[in-house]
Structures are given as structure tokens and as C-alpha cells.
Design goal:
The chain is mainly alpha-helical. The protein has seven helices and two strands; from the N terminus they run H-H-H-H-H-H-H-E-E. Helix 2 packs across helix 3, helix 2 crosses helix 6 and helix 6 packs antiparallel against helix 7.
Amino acid sequence: MDTVYEAAGGWQAFVDLAHAWHRRCLVDSVVSHAFSHPGQHPQHTERLAAYWAEALGGPSTYTDQLGDHSHVQRLHAGDGEHQEMDERAQRCFALALDDAGLPDDERLRSTLKDYFRWATADLTRYPDSAADVPSGLKLPHWSWDGLVVDP
């Protein structure tokens, strides 16, 4: 069976999805706030694509070259609770699946939306401070059956 990464279309599909999601977020009156602060990496969408790709069964480019999950958690930590923004970001993601031209396969799209919903919640585990994030967190992986738990 193909990985979620392969079924989605591989690397280019995730680059296209990251760009499409980012475009949707920038025009959303609530979600755009997350992208309004200075200091966003100039290759944000490519880095995001690498993160999603690895999490969904693709190559380990993110952890080999860019960081671990602790790094990602620290980027999102200290922002408090933001349920409305998260829900709107999830809607942007669902719409971006069409924008990016991902396959119109119900199982694939359902799995991707489930992953993104989970990932959005996971990135709010440290609402108070980046100092609360432990070092050495492994990048979580997601399969057709959901979160892959290491034995």
C-alpha cells in the first residue's frame, strides 16, 4: 500500500499544498494574524512541505536538514489558546487540497484533514512559553490509520 505521501502525489504535491494553504491563510482575516509578525523564514512554505511530507511517509528531509519536532513546537509555543484561528486554518487546509490539485480520493482527503486537525491541536501543547518545550521531540508520523506510535 502506498504511503499517504505517495498517494497524495509526492514532493511536488506537498509543495503545492503548502503554497495553497499559505495563500488561503494570508487572506483569512483571523488566520493571517499568525503570519503577520516579522521573522518568518523566507522558505516557510518549502520547509512546511518538508515537514508535512516527512510526517506523512515521505523522505526525512525535515529532520535531516531543518530540525526536530521540538524546534517546530517552539516556533508555535507561547501563543496562548486560539481555537477559532485553528478551526479556520483547518478550513483553509481543506480548501487548499483542491487549490493544490491533490487527488479527489475520499480516503486520502479524509486522512489529510484528520492529520491536519491533529497537528493543529498538537502545536498548541505549549501555550505559555517556548521554554516549556522539551528538547529532542521526534517528528510525529501519520499513516492511513492515524498517529503512528513508536513501540
